[in-house]
Amino acid sequence: MKLEHSFSVPAPVDATWAAFNELERVVPCFPGATLTSYDGEGFAGSVKVKVGPVALQYAGNGTFVDRDPANHRAVVEAKGKDRRGNGTATARVTARLAPEGASGTAVSVETELTVTGRPAQFGRGLMQEISDKLLDQFVACLAERLGGPATEKAERTAGVSPDAPQQTAFAPSATTAGSARRTSVTSQRAESDWPHPNGEVSEEPAPAPDVELDLGAAVVPVLARRIAPYLIGAAVALILRRFFVRKAG
C-alpha cells in the first residue's frame, strides 16, 4: 500500500531538518516507539502495539538509503517482526521538506508499507484513517518540541496497490547526514536541548513514560464515524415503521 501525507511544522526548514536528524528525539513522538540504537546511518528499535486484548511488540532495524541535505530529502527503509511471531512489517519512507511562508516547513511523506498478522485484519480504508489520527499526534508532539503551536495542514491522500496485502502506516521520520556515531537510546530521551525556530535553544520537555500504541482506541472513533449514518438511518426506519403500523391499526 502506498500512502501520501502532508503536514506543516511551525519552524524554519533548516531547524526542522536538524531536529529530524536527532532520531532519539523524534522517535518518542510516535506512540509506542522506542529507539534502541543509532550510528548515524542505521538504527534499531521497537514499537509496542495493542490490538484489543492482544499486545504485540515489533522489533526491527532500518537504514537511510538516501539523504540529500541540500534539498532536504531522505529515504528510509525499515523492517521488523513481532517478537512472538505474530506478524511482520516492512516500509520504505520518502520524506521531503520545503520552506513554507516566513518561518514554517511543509513536509510531504510517501510511505510504501506492508504489514502481516493481527494489525492487517483492518481494511485498507480503515487503516488509512487510523494512520491519519496517529499522524495528528506525531505532528502535535513535533511542533511542541520545535517551540511552536501544533499547526497542521490536513492534506492526506492514499494510493493503494491492488495486489498489496492488508497494511497499515507508520508516522514518518527523516534525518540528515552527520558524523558517524553510536548512540544507545531508551524511552528516556537524552538531556541535551532542542533547536528553537529562532535559532535559540529551548529546554526539552520531561521524558514521557513508556507507552504502547493502542490501535483499539484509535479504531473506535473511526468506526463510530463510519457506522453513525447507518445507525441513524436504521433508527429513522424503525420510527417510520412504527408510525405506519399504528396508523394502519
Automatic annotation (TrEMBL):
Coiled coil: none annotated. Keywords: Membrane, Transmembrane, Transmembrane helix. It holds the Pfam family COXG. Gene3D superfamilies: 3.30.530.20. Residues 164-189 have a biased composition (Polar residues). The keyword Transmembrane applies. CDD domains: SRPBCC_5. The chain crosses the membrane at residues 227-244. InterPro entries: CO_DH_gsu (IPR010419), START-like_dom_sf (IPR023393). Residues 151-208 are annotated as: Disordered. This is Carbon monoxide dehydrogenase subunit G. It comes from Kribbella amoyensis.
